[in-house]
## 1
Amino acid sequence: MNTLGEKFSFTSFGESHGKAIGGVLDGVPAGVRIDMDRIREALDKRAGRVAPSLEDGCAYSLELKGKGISPRALREGDEVEWLSGVMDGVTLGTPIAFIIRNKDARPEDYEWLKYSYRIGHADRTYQEKYGIRDHRGGGRASARETASRVVAGTVAQQLLAEKGIEIRAKLMQVGEEKNPERFDEYIAAIQRDGDSIGGIVECVITGLPVGVGEPIFDKLQSHLAFAMMSINGCKGFEYGSGFEGVGLKGSEMYLSENHTLISGGIAGGISDGTPVVFRCVFKPTASNRKTLETMFQGSKVSEFQSFKAGRHDACIAVRAVAVVEAMAALVVRNLM
Amino acid sequence: MNTLGEKFSFTSFGESHGKAIGGVLDGVPAGVRIDMDRIREALDKRAGRVAPSLEDGCAYSLELKGKGISPRALREGDEVEWLSGVMDGVTLGTPIAFIIRNKDARPEDYEWLKYSYRIGHADRTYQEKYGIRDHRGGGRASARETASRVVAGTVAQQLLAEKGIEIRAKLMQVGEEKNPERFDEYIAAIQRDGDSIGGIVECVITGLPVGVGEPIFDKLQSHLAFAMMSINGCKGFEYGSGFEGVGLKGSEMYLSENHTLISGGIAGGISDGTPVVFRCVFKPTASNRKTLETMFQGSKVSEFQSFKAGRHDACIAVRAVAVVEAMAALVVRNLM
Amino acid sequence: MNTLGEKFSFTSFGESHGKAIGGVLDGVPAGVRIDMDRIREALDKRAGRVAPSLEDGCAYSLELKGKGISPRALREGDEVEWLSGVMDGVTLGTPIAFIIRNKDARPEDYEWLKYSYRIGHADRTYQEKYGIRDHRGGGRASARETASRVVAGTVAQQLLAEKGIEIRAKLMQVGEEKNPERFDEYIAAIQRDGDSIGGIVECVITGLPVGVGEPIFDKLQSHLAFAMMSINGCKGFEYGSGFEGVGLKGSEMYLSENHTLISGGIAGGISDGTPVVFRCVFKPTASNRKTLETMFQGSKVSEFQSFKAGRHDACIAVRAVAVVEAMAALVVRNLM
Amino acid sequence: MNTLGEKFSFTSFGESHGKAIGGVLDGVPAGVRIDMDRIREALDKRAGRVAPSLEDGCAYSLELKGKGISPRALREGDEVEWLSGVMDGVTLGTPIAFIIRNKDARPEDYEWLKYSYRIGHADRTYQEKYGIRDHRGGGRASARETASRVVAGTVAQQLLAEKGIEIRAKLMQVGEEKNPERFDEYIAAIQRDGDSIGGIVECVITGLPVGVGEPIFDKLQSHLAFAMMSINGCKGFEYGSGFEGVGLKGSEMYLSENHTLISGGIAGGISDGTPVVFRCVFKPTASNRKTLETMFQGSKVSEFQSFKAGRHDACIAVRAVAVVEAMAALVVRNLM
């Protein structure tokens, strides 16, 4: 249930405000020196400590820090402790277990959540499914869990890079804004207003050989969609012509000069050797100052003053960029 | 690779123009009388032999037959032979194997495909992945395989219906046309023109209790997306507010009176007790009279007169409605 | 539940007296010409239509036919019909589905079983687990199901043979008799007496490279044991020094000149490049003339005249030889 | 590869002399208070810190401590740190991650192993499979890994006990000695002699309802055999009449008054409601003073003075008792 992949499998564990989050990565070949810098960078990107760089086609500046991203994310170092599978920095071929201890655990901040369900969160469904939940910051449902995915996915990216396969995601749209040069100011305004906004992340996989993915069920797009839809806040997945392609006629689509844009690099569930292109849409986070309604566990509705100012992400799609890359890498490595 | 689901699993086999297509359905409880009429209806809907009914909100008339749907589909009866797992019409709790023999197999129609790759089809990726392929009508990649899915999925639907869970899909958009009353004429025009067009199918699952789906990877939306993206021609999946929701602000989204439309009936990967709503987009089929280009296996490009008139679907989304329902049923039953 | 293996997977279906038994074999590479003769031979060996040959080290003669083996097995041809995955005798890389129709289905012979549980059979556990069962000849629990395994396993053996890996099993012990030259007469005497007897089958895998099997859970011996214990009537599995080695001291074991006999060709769960040797013990079949007691479904004990003379196997271990080889091949191919 | 079970799954990680060993247990229901004392007891039993009690039918006294069991095992406390899935001692329904830090890690003791393969160990197969290995004390192949299995298995045992299912294993035979009252002195003599000896562990599962296990491949005995064969040093598995039953005739077996002893509590792969009885044989450990030969990595044979006196187990079957119980519990819980 908490494991993704069969041959290259990642098991995730940990609650947002428990002792630690972490994971077990199984199927990494022996003899690989792990690039710890690359992992740190990816974690910083996920945490909003660095902005996606300009060369990624994402223009918003480092000023963004402290504007659209929660202080907790900025403060935490996300130090990875490697427990097994690595000796002197080199993989052993055995399962790699790692943990990131939760430093900023302030459970008292979440005391009120014991008796309340936040709208747009998984509080109620968890409580009804399990009859118990770790109410502190969403517990297992918190997006903090994605830090473990980023560690594992970055190891996968490193393995793929050795074969010439690169995975690059970028923020493509924020709200209705499609011009990257205006993302920074757009998000800052939303942030000032105590509100939140959705976004679209596009991901391109280059260097993938022909033949990745299986016909029928285990299609490449099926596995990518599965992984992306599992990211917190993701409401949709499309590849190639996607939803906008509904209006295309066959005569236009297949005679098009820009066939790859339309096919998305996949035919019959199998990579066709051209770049694979897909997009995910992320909803605005529910943890914003304007979301005031909630329900007590006894089903009665109440109002409350949700969070200290700024303690929320104005646009979770910004930080999702690193997670999309990580998940894509886990999927592709598992299918190869 | 050709199996979907763990506890309730469906294994699919068969080439489009081989002896038979079929499947093995494992995990069906013992003692259930299989509703053969329901299966026949679903197969007819998939084959385009009957139009989705008006009560489904799909307005296009039976006139559609012979217009937007290929003659082969209309001619074939899709007779299901039950090989195991059923005694006197009642399930035994053992694996249910069934086959549908291929009647309209005219391999000679496809002789030219031995040496050609059709654009927009999986011909080339199959050939490069396997070094061999059944070229007859796409072989394993043909949408004919979805008939097996419909048989299995309809058994799943029957099991779900016993628990009050109903799955209904409908055609929501054809090209740019969103008014169901104009679908018929729209598709007929495309058909007359020898062209093809995309469409969007919406599916609603009602009666689902709280708690279906697992946090983290095995989210309900992840499994639904996986299954839908595996349907031939599907280019995107979304639930709740989906891609259009990118422009919504958090303050609008969570204060909305129509919360279910936005949440899509899922929170944190787990069904929340309200109807689950998702949509899939289907591209226009590549098998239309206007798609004239192809490539010889030696990579040279050539022109050919593709199909006899009418032997193609003007809008595969029409027939996908039955497949979407079937796949959703397989997913939901497996997760329960 | 009815599937074995992940990368090379075999799904089995069918009841003993239903329409057909069969299977789906997934993961066979494309472009392999299937050796139909080899499959026929293996099926004949399993059915007791031919005795294991002298070169196998099994001395009992063809006279055995009609003595220790049930008439039904002798009469049936076990004709395999290939439904998919094969074109012109060559594999396509797609799932291979095959069936063997049940010819000698005489359900009326089993009418009395509707109301009785046979001792030593799965009649009662099936009835209590499922609340229904196909009572005809054991239904799904019948050893007839192993014919499907033999078809699939022989395809696997063929694939392994291409890499120089050979799997040979032989009857090693019948009752207390360990001299193959006396097996024939021993079994004939048991048969005349209307009784049944146990046996031990030994299997040797040669040509296996170093490295097959995974540390910890997915050890080579774990997978072999899993597969062998799933064969009808198998009560035990051992490799290398096995149970008799309990009395060995470490000083004797590891200084032994015959280290392979003791290690069984596996170290730490991984093949070590020497022949892999394992053994399985099979109990006497419960379907013998001397087993007269049974229980009515209401739990009352009664006597009945069980079977027509000869309609039982005196020593199921004889026919198990082909099944052991098949299962070993499925396991090894899946792990490679 | 390092995961056992699907619905109730256990993932193991950690090298013998790395930072920590540990595991992730997924599928534990929410709201269960974990019995930490029970886990400590089981770990002590596995480590040889307490002898199996007299009521277990195992007569060897506490004097055994320091005789047949390695000092490292006695010294280590095996302190379990719970990282996730548990809040205030109660399970959350989320994955439970735990670690046991390696305290007695003295890698310098194993420096010589960098260049040598020990006979009877997995040193060579690991090296050839992975091209690298953690040579320190066997690394991943060390029996220390079974401590993680005992933690996970004891949680499973607790869950089973709530349903009235008890799993009890005991030492049944040491070398040729079958009288428990003489085990103590027998093992002590072997230990004094610097040698090692094999043993047989018997396990009985009581309270199991009818219906656990699946027909065909996923038989109860298949899963038990798989799990037992994965325990270090296990060379064979049998249930019910086992290997000794080879000489039984059908007429004796099924008329026997002690039917359960013969059936082992399983019919057709499914538990029949009577106690399930199985046995495993363990070889003598290769790490004894008399095992002097090894091979340098360059394949040349050499002699070396293996271990400091006493730093080995005279009979690993003693400590395997706790592991057999743990593995049986993991298997049964997963199948229910």
## 2
Amino acid sequence: MNGIITPMITPLLSDDTIDKKGLKQIVEHLIAGGINGIFVLGTTGEATSLPDKLKQELIALSSEYIGGRVPLFVGITDPSPGESIALAAFSKNAGASAVVAAPPFYFTLTQPELMAYYNNLADKSVLPVFIYNMPAQTKIMIEPSTVTALSKHPNIPGIKDSSGIGPYFNTLLYLLKDNPDFSVFVGPDEMMAQAVLLGGSGGVNSGSNMFPHLFVRLYKAAAEGDLQTVRYLQQAVMEISSVIYSQGGGGYRFLKGIKKVLSAMKMTGNTMALPLHHAFKDEESDAIRKSVDRVKQILSNNTRI
Amino acid sequence: MNGIITPMITPLLSDDTIDKKGLKQIVEHLIAGGINGIFVLGTTGEATSLPDKLKQELIALSSEYIGGRVPLFVGITDPSPGESIALAAFSKNAGASAVVAAPPFYFTLTQPELMAYYNNLADKSVLPVFIYNMPAQTKIMIEPSTVTALSKHPNIPGIKDSSGIGPYFNTLLYLLKDNPDFSVFVGPDEMMAQAVLLGGSGGVNSGSNMFPHLFVRLYKAAAEGDLQTVRYLQQAVMEISSVIYSQGGGGYRFLKGIKKVLSAMKMTGNTMALPLHHAFKDEESDAIRKSVDRVKQILSNNTRI
Amino acid sequence: MNGIITPMITPLLSDDTIDKKGLKQIVEHLIAGGINGIFVLGTTGEATSLPDKLKQELIALSSEYIGGRVPLFVGITDPSPGESIALAAFSKNAGASAVVAAPPFYFTLTQPELMAYYNNLADKSVLPVFIYNMPAQTKIMIEPSTVTALSKHPNIPGIKDSSGIGPYFNTLLYLLKDNPDFSVFVGPDEMMAQAVLLGGSGGVNSGSNMFPHLFVRLYKAAAEGDLQTVRYLQQAVMEISSVIYSQGGGGYRFLKGIKKVLSAMKMTGNTMALPLHHAFKDEESDAIRKSVDRVKQILSNNTRI
Amino acid sequence: MNGIITPMITPLLSDDTIDKKGLKQIVEHLIAGGINGIFVLGTTGEATSLPDKLKQELIALSSEYIGGRVPLFVGITDPSPGESIALAAFSKNAGASAVVAAPPFYFTLTQPELMAYYNNLADKSVLPVFIYNMPAQTKIMIEPSTVTALSKHPNIPGIKDSSGIGPYFNTLLYLLKDNPDFSVFVGPDEMMAQAVLLGGSGGVNSGSNMFPHLFVRLYKAAAEGDLQTVRYLQQAVMEISSVIYSQGGGGYRFLKGIKKVLSAMKMTGNTMALPLHHAFKDEESDAIRKSVDRVKQILSNNTRI
């Protein structure tokens, strides 16, 4: 598995109602943008905030709208292993290709406990299980030796690392270099190009919700070793990161910024699931608007790339 | 509300089967011990590890076995506000008196987001909502100014603070001193006596699963200002903390130790819900056994107290 | 060793000039207040911010002004063991009674490294070495088992715990109960009374710079088990904590508040050593002023206590 | 300023005696390896563990042995601003080109306090001051907006970022792209090639103590966009990281591994400054030895690159 997988936002009409029209539009937007897979119910999808019923509805609708054109990945991260396993079963029935699980995030496990957790999950899940390293939320790093041990499980095909820690990601690449079937994806948008230049499988990048083309082109340039294009397009990624992801107080500004931009693009409304909510000041909304223009300008410069 | 509320362990036959006989025995053990309330589905109850169905079963059975003799508190902590509110409704129907909620524990909220979260929860919950400060698990301290603001909500009757941070707890006591109806409970066993000596409402102490009498007597001694008894019984609490809660690797040793002791007492088996599991070496089990004897010896010394 | 040891602020005319007149006045203020020892060059003394030369000058002057009326303790915390040992030698020559050392605070040691560090320090220091647990600054907790092992060194007479973690402090008390010559002091003002009620040796409390009488009386009440007085005076401690220590942005507000109050008392000026500096808004200065009045009022109520 | 700057280890005969012969040998080894500068008294140089006198001796000797062939950088990180400024003056007299300062590491400053700290330092330092971001030791991230503000100070020519956080480093590159005279160096060996591929100034990489040629060649390949060579040589960097930097318990294994390898190379002995010390088991020493062979084999494969 290679390329760009979009950790899709969850378009909402209200806290417990999916924006079906928005969902359909975003799915089309992503597929038209050339992305290689859609990952629902990740952090960007506000998965943990959603009631179980809504999660199931989102999986079923996403699968229907995607219609097999790209693989569907489903986040099953849950503090209860039983719930995760049940959601994997539901996902398979709904037509998903694989599931993605971060560590249980209430109790902080030791590495052996983490190993046992993933082995149990991979044994019982009816779909392949991608490991999801997300220490800022889960309070735990999945150590490289744990990942290499888990990589031998036939039902664990890869990892998504959202730690943002450069040496960690490169250690995974190095230790897993003799297992080319095991995918090593990077989470933060800002690191995707560098990760792929040195052999990473691709990115699970939130920014591809807004600008799928950008990430797809950047991925290809990096995979082909076209450094000039990489450096050029990286500017757009960093513009997104420095402005769109940096407005407003509190954390999860990247997520709030993305929903704001998708709303401006008329893809869906601006609704977030509690406990998160929007709170942009006017000048912050302005900054985001101008930044979108700068990103578009970089992307439109066809002569340059 | 005052006194000792036991954050009851969840007796299990397997990962998804309640040990009903064990549950009944523990409920009787606690009530015979004189505790003032039973709190199911807290951290000690491994709540976040349990599937939703089992949570509901546990609430219903606990309510039935308690039969109104002491109030029943139910933990509704969940990263999804919708799920928490639904569980509060279920709990009321099952006969519970109040619910207890730690902050959502995937996304880390700002203090204003936390305030909005609790206000929304208290507005929509059909039972009173106790705040549960548990930063080691949730990654966030509920700041004193947030607590004092929330204390004005008519459906928020108190807080349980499990941070273990002395100055924080005493700040709560001081800032809320003019609101005697607002309860301030302390979580860590080791701090209960001191908290009550200075005006705390009582303890939600895990050790009372094993030795309810100890905590009830210690609470009373502290509430009455009987310092000699406090100092004497505190030894038993610290024996539990230093030995029973300190065996084995990894975190949550307190929880593993309690289940081990309850199993030795024939109250229930030794089963934990994944992702946690027991892993005591022989010498560690031995240390626990001897420690139980020392605690019992302290408790049996009637001449001293 | 028992009672209240004041971690004295460092009165400054400028970043590298001691306010000698202020120093003399504060020493007299503390001794008149009945404190049991003066500890210079602790966190409250901004020790790590001061150049070596000024540290030596402060030690010499403090010793001269104290004139043997109470013991002088000197903080020798330094990331370089050699510098700490040299400062201990200087302190002895200057007439100090003991030194106090937190762990080296650049490299984060393991517990065995920490044990080796303190054993080496205690072997080479010409004065007794108190251990200083200060994880917020040093990034490391000195585990109870490390403390108990170190307590056997003949040149280590005690510990000051500024972690603020209740269960940790009580664990120290319990594990060291058979070694009554080993002192266990508590750092945070807010915890002193409770610590002493259960057997702690006393407090090394910053607030005693401003109100030595308050802490001395509170210590005595706690040591004598006079709970009514403890509860009454604790109000003044919490008033200080909740208001005087809580103004202004950033950390170390307690320190900035203390210097502000001492300046209002005409004890010394308001100068802090870089990298810290004052930045109170007018309403914050106001809040501090009013809080001082409330503390004084509590203290003046002689009929009550 | 571009290229590879070696954060040189401090060769010691004992805790307070420099290994002069070793120092001379290492200086020659590094210059022969083609490195672009030598940085003494960094983290790798165990600076904070060394007494002041030894620091001065090391600066003077290093300057003498280097003899102007490459620029000398001196770490002046100290919790006391006065000490840092004095060491900068000493360094200039000894012939150094610039100094490097991490934030004061006892008190944790706010960003405005950090800004004031660096502005004051840059105003008073007689040598240019490089900013050193090292949150694992200093407990604080220097936020991008703080760095961009400081980059305007005429006496602040650049930053070394040792955070290891990919998005942060790339944000610095992006925000400072219009200030090409401001250098942005990366600390972790593992990230150097990727940093330079996207426009970073170079690396301050510990591994260049052992294998200066490797890092110089990798830097050049990255700067020239020779991706094939980058991918090939990166293997050697990751071999070092995964094995040589990963033996033994505790932190700072990278540092212990480097001294071990330099000792095996007969460059200097194996002595570390307290509070750190070596503690390799035989099999760990073995693993390091074999890893050195693998690195050498990668480097000797001239046909490949």
